[in-house]
């Protein structure tokens, strides 16, 4: 099914002041506009068929969406800047040959000289695809076009019956016609719903057909390096500077002097800006069908998924806020923290030094602030919230599959990868071996298994090298933390010494963020080269392979330091008198007596917020500055030249080379923060929700106003990202179970309360259960404090440390007490119960929620039936018109 979208017609009435209303120009023959031999210098004159009574010397900005005849719409624009003679000599030849090739494919071309542009430096070549080219391209690309009106009853959701402030104004956005569709076929053209050939193909479809021609046209007439390959494609011409830009035009200006309510939309771009990209529309639903119609299915899918993800974050954010508020309200009633902060109870305990030599003894009450902050994120509500989030992830996947099934049918992308997607031109040109395709019995290029094995082995080796590089960088940050914490702890100022751990955590997180950004930039270039080396057949395969490599690296890059704090810091320190020094001879970091959870929150917050701030700057602020710099000169120009639409779009920023990859990656990394480590930071969904509300409008703003119009690409789904999201959700169950069991104090507290406390209260938790005693006579020489601070602590003979060890007076001193084994058994039991409970609930959700809605299934069956009926009808007509044998 397809909500049929049609291209806007040329402006009605007078295109030019002296052109009679309703007058249209006859299209010239293919290739009529440009003349000269393909190897001559650049064409300097454009021959355009004269329109009776129409001016050929004057025009205004409103009509620069068309050729000079005012009838043929501009489907694509090629631009190049004039340089020195030596620089241009080779490029002129390539351009001329390339243009000759695309003219032979049937495109109409019209040339704009550099001196006609406001900048005076840029030449433009406008491309128009006539009906014959469009029909042929649509058939070759298996485009699905309207076949018959959709006569199936539509089901209305209960949410659609009740208007909300979030709904779009139905008076401003018209509903598109709803059709059943079938692959376009020129021999059965009369069976398709063609009211007007000029409007039959949308602007997006027209530009996609033109781009298919541009991507396969040769720009050299012979093999230059005896490799058996001829160079081709607009991508390479853009890369080598022959063309500086290639883009379809936006539909016009996105602003208007008149209100949308009074005069209606000027064009589709104006409508999208007013309803979607304006900051004041942040609370409104997205016009997804309009986005798809204007930008194509691939971008439409991204914004649909982003909106769906943001909507799903609402209940998660509410649950996280409830967990946080519970911790905030009950913080003053937490007996363990109150005892730690009290000098009369646990706060007066003398603690062993936190580093060698330069650190001295300290009182447990100094950890009061850490303990209170930790309780905000480490309380009984956190455990319930972790279970809720694991179940939330299951609902997220299952309901997205339903939503995606609706889109696949509604937008005609269900069979795109199998039926419509074509072989990459780069693959066709690079692979010389051919074999017969068992499906269509045609010779196609292929890569043998031994070659694939060699290429993928190379990829694995390079990936392992970069993973090792990330680990080395993380180790460097850990060493920095250890050294800085030791140096600050030795400073004889309570303000600095008391915050040594916090300062080390914050600064190391900032350093880690800088390393992450730098390594991302380097690795992205490597990943592109490795993906090209693997020689993937289709664009989808290429993107999935590149995405998988990039995400693996990003996963290690972004999460390594967080995993270290969550699962390794403080777990293998040893004890006073027997510290582990396997880490380059350094004594390993210890957690605060209140635990490492608050450090994990700090690391999560800085990396999550810092990454999103950097991404928003790179995606919005930087393009806006670049657009202003490029447009400043032409806007300040005092001449009377028309600032044409093609030059306005030329001065816009280019969409990043990797398309939507950065957009998806940013959200998927965020999804990891929201799910994998949510037990440590219940506010993560809330901050993610706030970010995404802004992100949707920022993305919309840059697509509509700051970027050249991207090619309207099609896609069947969100690709490998869905598999990555499922993998993250599965990992999140294990991760959150481990964080609750081993990083938080929830399990030790429960064991003490129900096993070791006589009155089932938390009295004496630190003094009798969580801390162990150490005789300072057993200190290693390197660990003895240089300044024992006799005035403050007196003659210290014993100190306490975090652990479950026997006292020095025990028959076997410093061995694990029975409490250690009880806590470990409870931690392992919790992980088993937690994971099995979530697995069962996930299976239950998958069983109860079907992947495809019933009404979508029925419409698919109806469409297939109509498509078969149309095919049978065509065959009957052939039989009736076939001459009878004598």
UniProtKB/TrEMBL annotation:
How this chain sits in the membrane, per its record, is: Multi-pass membrane protein
Q: Predominant location of this chain? A: membrane
Q: Where in the cell is it found?
A: Cell membrane; Membrane
Q: Which GO terms describe its cellular component?
A: plasma membrane
Tell me one GO molecular function of this protein. Answer: chloride channel activity
Which of UniProt's keywords are assigned here?
Answer: Cell membrane, Glycoprotein, Membrane, Transmembrane, Transmembrane helix
Transmembrane stretches in the record are 299-329, 381-400, 460-488, 500-523, 550-568, 668-690, 718-742, 819-849
Q: Where is this region: Disordered?
A: 1-37
Domain Anoctamin transmembrane, by residue range, is 291-863
- The Anoctamin dimerisation domain sits at 66-288
Pfam families for this protein: Anoct_dimer (PF16178), Anoctamin (PF04547)
InterPro entries associated with the record: Anoct_dimer (IPR032394), Anoctamin (IPR007632), Anoctamin_TM (IPR049452)
Task: Give the similarity note.
Answer: Belongs to the anoctamin family.
Supply the name of the protein.
Anoctamin
Q: What is the lineage of its organism?
A: Eukaryota, Metazoa, Spiralia, Lophotrochozoa, Mollusca
């Amino acid at each position: 099914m397809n909500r049929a979208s049609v291209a806007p017609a040329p402006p009605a009435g007078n295109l030019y002041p002296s052109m009679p209303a309703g007058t249209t120009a006859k299209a010239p023959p293919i290739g009529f506009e440009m003349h000269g031999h393909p190897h001559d210098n650049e064409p300097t004159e454009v021959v355009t068929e004269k329109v009776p009574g129409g001016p050929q010397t004057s025009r205004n900005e409103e009509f620069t969406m068309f050729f000079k005849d005012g009838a043929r719409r501009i489907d694509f624009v090629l631009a190049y800047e004039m340089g020195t003679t030596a620089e241009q000599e080779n490029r002129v030849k390539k351009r001329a040959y390339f243009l000759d090739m695309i003219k032979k494919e049937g495109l109409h071309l019209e040339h704009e000289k550099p001196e006609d542009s406001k900048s005076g430096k840029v030449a433009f070549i406008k491309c128009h695809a006539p009906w014959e080219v469009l029909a042929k391209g649509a058939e070759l690309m298996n485009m699905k076009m309207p076949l018959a009106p959709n006569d199936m009853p539509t089901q209305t959701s209960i949410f659609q019956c009740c208007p909300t402030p979030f709904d779009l104004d139905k008076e401003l956005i018209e509903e598109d016609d709803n059709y059943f569709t079938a692959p376009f076929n020129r021999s059965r053209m009369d069976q398709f719903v063609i009211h007007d050939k000029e409007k039959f193909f949308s602007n997006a479809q027209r530009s996609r057909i033109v781009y298919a021609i541009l991507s396969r046209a040769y720009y050299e007439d012979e093999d230059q390096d005896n490799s058996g390959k001829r160079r081709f494609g607009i991508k390479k011409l853009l890369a080598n500077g022959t063309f500086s830009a290639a883009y379809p035009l936006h539909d016009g200006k996105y602003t208007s002097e008149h209100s949308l309510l009074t005069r209606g939309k000027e064009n589709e771009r104006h409508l999208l800006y007013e309803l979607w990209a304006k900051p004041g529309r942040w609370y409104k639903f997205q016009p997804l069908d309009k986005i798809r119609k204007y930008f194509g299915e691939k971008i439409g899918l991204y914004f649909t998924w982003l909106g769906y993800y943001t909507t799903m974050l609402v209940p998660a954010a509410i649950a996280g806020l409830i967990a946080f508020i519970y911790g905030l309200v009950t913080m003053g009633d937490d007996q363990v923290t109150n005892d730690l902060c009290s000098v009369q109870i646990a706060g007066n305990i003398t603690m062993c030094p936190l580093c060698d030599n330069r650190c001295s003894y300290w009182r447990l009450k100094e950890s009061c602030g850490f303990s209170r902050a930790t309780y905000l994120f480490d309380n009984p509500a956190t455990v319930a919230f972790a279970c809720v989030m694991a179940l939330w992830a299951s609902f997220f996947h299952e309901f997205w599959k339903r939503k995606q099934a609706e889109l696949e049918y509604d937008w005609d992308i269900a069979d795109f990868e199998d039926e419509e997607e074509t072989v990459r031109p780069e693959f066709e040109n690079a692979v010389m071996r051919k074999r017969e395709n068992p499906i269509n019995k045609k010779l196609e290029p292929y890569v043998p298994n031994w070659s694939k094995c060699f290429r993928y082995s190379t990829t694995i080796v390079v990936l392992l090298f970069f993973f090792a590089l990330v680990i080395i960088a993380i180790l460097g940050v850990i060493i920095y933390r250890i050294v800085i914490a030791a140096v600050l702890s030795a400073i004889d100022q309570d303000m600095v010494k008391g915050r040594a751990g916090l300062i080390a955590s914050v600064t190391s997180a900032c350093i880690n963020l800088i390393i992450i950004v730098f390594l991302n930039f380097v690795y992205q270039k490597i990943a592109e080269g490795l993906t090209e080396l693997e020689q993937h057949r289709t664009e989808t395969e290429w993107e999935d392979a590149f995405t998988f490599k990039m995400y693996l690296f990003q996963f290690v890059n972004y999460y390594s330091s967080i995993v270290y704090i969550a699962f390794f810091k403080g777990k293998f320190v040893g004890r006073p008198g027997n510290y582990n020094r396997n880490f380059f001879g350094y004594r390993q970091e210890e957690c605060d007596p209140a635990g490492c959870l608050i450090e994990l929150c700090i690391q999560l917050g800085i990396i999550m917020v810092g990454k999103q701030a950097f991404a928003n700057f790179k995606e919005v602020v930087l393009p806006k500055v670049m657009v202003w710099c490029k447009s400043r000169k032409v806007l300040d120009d005092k001449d009377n030249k028309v600032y044409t639409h093609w030059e306005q779009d030329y001065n816009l920023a280019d969409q990043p080379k990797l398309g939507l990859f950065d957009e998806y990656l940013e959200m998927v990394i965020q999804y990891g923060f929201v799910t994998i480590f949510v037990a440590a930071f219940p506010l993560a969904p809330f901050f993610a929700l706030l970010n995404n509300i802004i992100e949707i409008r920022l993305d919309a703003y840059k697509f509509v106003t700051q970027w050249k119009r991207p090619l309207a690409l099609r896609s069947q789904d969100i690709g490998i990202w869905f598999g990555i999201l499922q993998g993250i959700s599965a990992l999140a169950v294990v991760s959150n179970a481990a964080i609750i069991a081993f990083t938080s104090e929830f399990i030790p507290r429960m064991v003490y309360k129900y096993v070791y406390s006589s009155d089932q209260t938390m009295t004496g938790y630190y003094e009798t259960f969580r801390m162990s005693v150490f005789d300072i006579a057993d200190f290693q020489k390197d660990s003895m404090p240089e300044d024992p601070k006799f005035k403050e602590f007196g003659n210290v003979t014993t100190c306490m440390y975090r652990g479950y060890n026997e006292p020095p007076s025990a028959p076997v001193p410093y061995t694990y007490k029975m409490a250690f084994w009880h806590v470990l058994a409870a931690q392992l039991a919790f992980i088993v119960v937690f994971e099995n409970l979530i697995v069962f609930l996930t299976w239950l959700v998958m069983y109860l929620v079907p992947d495809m809605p019933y009404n979508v299934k029925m419409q698919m069956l109806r469409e297939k039936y109509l498509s078969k009926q149309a095919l049978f009808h065509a065959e009957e007509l052939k039989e009736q018109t076939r001459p009878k044998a004598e």
